[in-house]
Amino acid sequence: MPTDKENSDANQMWGGRFSSRPDHIMEEINASIGFDQRLAAQDVAGSKAHARMLAAVDVISDADADAICQGLDQVLGEIQRGEFEFSRALEDIHMNVEARLKALIGEPAGRLHTARSRNDQVATDFRLWLRQRLDEQLAQTDALIGALLDQAEAGADIVMPGFTHLQSAQPVVWGHHMLAYVEMFGRDRGRLEDARKRLNECPLGAAALAGTSFPIDRDATAAALGFDRPTANSIDSVSARDFALEYLSAATIMATHLSRLAEEIVIWCSAQFRFVTISDAFSTGSSIMPQKRNPDAAELMRAKVGRIMGALVGLATVMKGLPLAYSKDMQEDKERVFDAADALSLCLAAAAGVVADLSPNAERLAESAGAGFSTATDLADWLVRELGLPFRDAHHVTGSLVRAAEEKGVGLEGLSLPEMQAVHDKIDERVFSVLGVENSVKSRISYGGTAPDQVRAQIKRWRAARS
Ligand code: ARG
Q1: Is-above-0.90 flag for pTM?
Q2: In the 8-state DSSP scheme, what is residue 57?
Q3: How far is the CA of 106 from the CAs of 91, 119, 179, 384, in angstroms?
Q4: Less CB within 10 Å around the terminal CB: N or C of the chain?
Q5: Given ligand 1 and candidates 328, 333, 338, which is best to mutate, with the most ligand atoms within 8 Å of its CB?
Q6: Would you name the residues annotated as active-site residues?
Q7: Residue of 38, 119, 238, 338 with the most ligand 1 atoms within 8 Å of its CB, for mutation
Q8: What's the confidence (pLDDT) of residue 10?
């Protein structure tokens, strides 16, 4: 393994016109090896595809391509086994790999960098890395949606309060509330898929920025690396990072959704709400208060959006106003994306676990569903439907009934018929049928409404779309 000193005073990769090595501060600000070593597998895959292509178009010999590919496998093995000594003087993963390849196989290693540059190399590696992450996160999103659908199915008949302004609004069912998140994460999934589609073009062969005079076959390298096609403009190929921005945008939106779910779980499991119990597996205790059971996983899910959105803002700021084509500024792309992607993966895993383990407290939810005169809209609708009142008048009459119930200290169903008739003389005993929360939710049969049958139909639609 070459030490920094053995790499000679000047950088062995680009040091031809330099007589002394860079200042250590230069080396420190310039080096990306501390973080871009995560691209090792992608770098080796890209280099192998490039070497095979160069041999196929007779730019290098088959023997050289064989030596390069075998050598690269060996380098990757060393890295994966933790035996590789990364050198900061060699700046980044690309030059670290190539220098080690040279030490292993000698002269043929020097032919690998024909018809390419680190500019198209890093763009290719980064896309490959992100594509793999996207695939993993698509699968994770599916798992989360699956857990929410299971909750929805088990709780299609559990009534709970529906809120607006976090005030009791109208009763809904638990399954309906779970399906709201299914819709959100379903759209997030679509955004990740879109990002993957646009990302999947291969920059390799754009070289520094202008393309190359060698007769390379860009379709071949693109296909070998699983890309849909080569990128069509060499300048754009090395200067574009919107694939990373698009991923971070989608990730940010998804993280906001995860934070809303997390926040609801935090509220719901409090002693004041007691809507749900979270499992031991996803809560922690307090070192001082023995009674505590803290929803830390949900709290961190709620918080991680900060770093994910921070990554989006950070990278957008780096890219803003950057002239074409490649500038070293763009090296600042990776840490943000790595960090955001790690955070999102963890949040998705935590969310799937927390949701799968969540037990809704059906009794408490039903009791709370009736609080706050939550069936007042049902009453107003009944006055419209059965007594022919205009909705505005019905709204007013219902308001008076709510005031009467409030004064008596009961729910709407606690008023007697004469008490109701004192407000509006045409009200009859049929009114009681709409005052219960069960009847309220059953009546919401409009498409996408909270009636349990509607909820079951939506679960069915989702399950069919996923199979
Ligand atoms: N480490 C660099 C990066 O991440 C690789 C590309 C360097 N290209 C260059 N022309 N210096 O952006």
Answers
A1: yes
A2: T
A3: 21, 24, 60, 88
A4: C
A5: 328
A6: 165, 286
A7: 119
A8: 67
